[in-house]
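re: the backbone from monday

yeah here it is again, tokenized this time
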């Protein structure tokens, strides 16, 4: 790049940084060294920054761009709808495409899930689910959630989010009526047991705790992520979710499945709960539902949703942008692609390749404690000592930065901030996976050498 051009770009980046620092809440965007990268454009599995540098995106922008960035069918659907209407009156005089989208969503959802409340983001969907549980089970104002869970950052969603860093600043206003029980984090089993010999004892312990705290007399619902994403890409052992569902049915407690992260083909099934043939009473969806437009959904069975009653002319749970026609158009197009192209099968196939390569090339490296995942979700947990399993968040952070310098976008996460998280677009190919694994191998090796 010529010196004048490079200087011009550097000034542009500095101007962008100054604008963010001056005009955005300082807690939102992280500034340090190579962070942030300002995106200019994105296509498929690739992102270009304002300097013109291309990155392989193994995050799908927080698992939203499941179909790849800028899928032509989504852009075409958006353009068609833009020419017709960009905003409607969702709960008074709804746009026609809302009806079409809701019918398509009901057709794709498992079991009897067929009636939906649309909203704008994942927290909103969880809020809708919590309210629905309260409406459907009057008099039971408590909930059950899991350690390490992440369900969003609004007050209702925070009340069932099991991560202290998000809850602590707002503890005085968060509902105290949530009972947290252990999630099956097999790598760090609190019972010091190992699957399958454990007999999934963690669930037995959770069941006893729920019953002792009041059971069906007190709790309206259990809310669960079939795979904990922000908690560290934690995959429960086979049979755990099915047993949880049976427990909820026996106890007459509703089951809410938060599939905002895992939904829409990412895990190798259209919805992660389908791996164990589980149909929850309420399902929360978002992220990949539209492939990029801010829209989410709380979808329930008729038996649950009819407890809301019929509208008397003023909805008691709604929003200005409910059923936005642009989001419905993109959602309708995205659903068609997921189903027509059987992207769940592709996610299962490419996910198996990804985990196999991670195990082959990273499994023997010092400090790699666990490699786990399902479909195109993968987590690499870094530890200081394989015996003690002491988390190594510092090394995880360095790997994320080093990967960025090598043009690979990944995320760090987990309740100890020591898990490298991968959730690439479902259209990712072997070439991008090989590049990703190679960068991670080099970064982990070189960082360890520099550490001595």
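seq for it, each position gets an aa:
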């Amino acid at each position: 790049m010529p010196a004048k051009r490079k200087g011009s770009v550097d000034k542009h980046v500095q101007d962008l940084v100054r604008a963010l620092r001056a005009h955005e809440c300082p807690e939102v965007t992280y500034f340090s060294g190579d962070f942030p990268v300002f995106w200019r454009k994105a296509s498929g599995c690739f992102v270009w920054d304002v300097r013109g540098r291309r990155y392989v995106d193994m995050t799908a922008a927080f698992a939203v761009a499941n179909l790849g960035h800028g899928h032509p069918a989504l852009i075409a659907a958006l353009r068609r709808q833009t020419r017709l209407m960009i905003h409607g009156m969702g709960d008074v005089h709804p746009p026609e495409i809302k009806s079409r989208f809701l019918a398509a969503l009901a057709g794709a959802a498992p079991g009897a899930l067929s009636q939906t409340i649309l909203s704008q983001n994942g927290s909103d969907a969880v809020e809708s689910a919590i309210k629905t549980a309260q409406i459907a089970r009057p008099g039971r104002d408590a909930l059950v959630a899991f350690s390490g869970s992440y369900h969003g950052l609004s007050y209702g969603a925070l009340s069932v989010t099991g991560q202290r860093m998000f809850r602590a600043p707002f503890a005085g206003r968060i509902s105290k009526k949530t009972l947290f029980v252990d999630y099956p984090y097999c790598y760090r089993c609190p019972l010091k047991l190992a699957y399958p010999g454990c007999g999934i004892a963690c669930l037995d312990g959770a069941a006893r705790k729920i019953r002792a705290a009041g059971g069906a007399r007190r709790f309206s619902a259990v809310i669960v992520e079939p795979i904990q994403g922000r908690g560290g890409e934690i995959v429960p052992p086979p049979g755990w979710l099915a047993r949880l569902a049976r427990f909820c049915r026996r106890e007459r407690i509703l089951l809410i499945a938060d599939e905002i992260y895992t939904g829409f083909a990412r895990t190798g099934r259209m919805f992660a709960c389908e791996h164990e043939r589980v149909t929850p009473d309420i399902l929360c969806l978002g992220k990949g539902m539209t492939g990029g437009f801010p829209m989410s959904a709380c979808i329930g069975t008729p038996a649950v949703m009819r407890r809301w009653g019929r509208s008397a002319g003023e909805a008691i749970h709604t929003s200005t942008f409910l059923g936005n026609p642009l989001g419905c158009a993109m959602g309708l197009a995205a659903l068609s692609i997921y189903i027509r192209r059987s992207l769940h099968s592709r996610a299962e196939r490419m996910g198996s390749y990804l985990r196999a390569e991670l195990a082959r090339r990273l499994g023997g490296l010092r400090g790699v404690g666990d490699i786990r995942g399902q479909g195109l979700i993968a987590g690499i947990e870094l530890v200081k000592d394989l015996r003690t399993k002491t988390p190594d968040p510092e090394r995880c952070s360095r790997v994320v930065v080093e990967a960025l310098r090598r043009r690979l976008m990944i995320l760090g996460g987990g309740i100890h901030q020591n898990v490298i998280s991968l959730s690439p677009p479902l259209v990712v190919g072997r070439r991008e996976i090989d590049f990703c694994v190679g960068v991670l191998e080099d970064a982990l090796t070189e960082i360890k050498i520099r550490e001595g």
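Residues 32-63+343-451 form a domain with the Aspartate Aminotransferase, domain 1 fold (CATH 3.90.1150.10). The chain has a mean pLDDT of 96.
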